[in-house]
Amino acid sequence: MAHGATPALTGTQRDALFAAAVKAMGQAHAPYSKFLVGAAVLDAQGRIHAGCNVENAAYPQGVCAEAGALSAMVLAGGTEVRAVLVAGQGDGLVTPCGGCRQKIREFAAPDTPVLIANAQQVRAAFTLDQLLPHSFGPDHLAARSAKVHQ
Ligand SMILES: [Zn+2]
Q: Which of 5, 50, 112, 124 could be stapled to 24 by a disulfide with Cβ–Cβ 3.0 to 4.6 Å?
């Protein structure tokens, strides 16, 4: 997968990501933890896709907000994530869990911005590489399959 240089996020895109993530947060199905999370991703076409956490009575079957947003992007034909915004509750920064960092990496370059918010404002900004350093991604397998086919 080829990733172009990631342009800086515009204020308009940032606001739209924030609005989509906060709206999704309000739709979360979190009857057990009561911990609502919303996520939004910006794709290469400038479209925004959102997701919310969906808990399950069989706890491990719950799905993170980021996974839902990525699924929505793929369903819409998106193949690249240019920015991510996660909105959650509480005093601590609601950063993507380890599994979601890897899920985001499937579609995002290491320099992709990952913004962390609550319902009121964006609180922090990271790059994906800061959250998932020395990551394993599609490029590793692309190089491998190229060798296999030589
Ligand atoms: Zn997660």
A: 50
Task: Provide the whole-model pTM.
Answer: 0.91
Q: How many separate domains does the chain show?
A: 1
Q: Residue 82's domain is classified under what CATH number?
A: 3.40.140.10
3-state secondary structure the chain: CCCCCCCCCCHHHHHHHHHHHHHHHCCCECCCCCCCEEEEEEECCCCEEEEECECCCCHHHCECHHHHHHHHHHHCCCCCEEEEEEEECCCCCCCCCHHHHHHHHCCCCCCCEEEEECCCCEEEEEEHHHHCCCCCCHHHHHHHHHHHCC
Residue 33 belongs to some domain of the structure: yes
Q: Which residues are catalytic?
A: 66
Residue 10 CA to ligand 1 center (angstroms) comes to: 26
Domain range for 48: 11-148
What separation in Å is there between the alpha carbon of 1 and the centre of ligand 1?
23
pLDDT, tens digit (0-9, with 9 covering 90-100), for 118-135: 999 999 999 999 999 999
